Amino acid sequence: MAGGTSLALQIGHRVSVDFDLFSGLPIKKTLLKKVEEVFKGKAVQVLVNNSSELTILTDGVKCTFLQYPFPVILPLVQTNSAPLLSVKEILATKAYTIGRRGELKDYVDMYIGFKDNHAVLSEVLEIARKKYGEAFNDRLFLEQLVYGEDLEEVAITMVSGSAPSKSEMIDYFSETVKNITL
User: Fold this and answer.
1) Distance (Å, rounded) from C-alpha 109 to C-alpha 132?
2) What is the C-alpha to C-alpha distance for residues 125 and 11, in angstroms, rounded to an integer?
3) Per-residue pLDDT tens digits of the chain, which is 182 residues long
4) If DSSP codes are grouped into helix, strand and coil, which group holds residue 65?
5) Which of 104, 130, 136, 155 has the fewest beta carbons closer than 10 A?
6) Where are the domains of the chain?
């Protein structure tokens, strides 16, 4: 499992109720039937169903099964239910996402990840370069990281306290980015 929920399970910073499950293989046509069997008796709304993605919504929870062409770089965190991407690698995926179309929750995840010393920006950049190769643009990511003016304000429920403000995060990122040379 990867994404915000995997990160939230590991660092306990915010509430996240969507599940992102990645595989290097194409999504099998039989997966939807298996998902419907697992959620028997519940309404399953199919949002996307193709060979690279199956996204469903059930009881207000979005579950995405995604063919993901990028390699796992760091060892997975083993749990009793599903293996999780490591915190540092999730932050690298957030860096890739922010460089493409970041959402407020991605910035919050990155902010808490750095502020609480789960990772530092330079190592996240290094992991992202290894994982995404030429598909990752350091400069674009760093520019997006310090520019949050167009981020849509959405409610983010933190486990304790309130979510950091956009200006608080942008100020922090601006200071952090000053230490990076490309």
Assistant:
1) 20
2) 20
3) 999 999 999 999 999 989 999 999 999 999 999 999 999 999 999 999 999 999 999 999 999 999 999 999 999 999 998 899 999 999 999 999 998 888 999 999 999 999 999 999 999 999 999 999 999 999 999 999 999 888 999 999 999 999 999 999 999 999 999 989 87
4) strand
5) 155
6) 25-67, 86-177
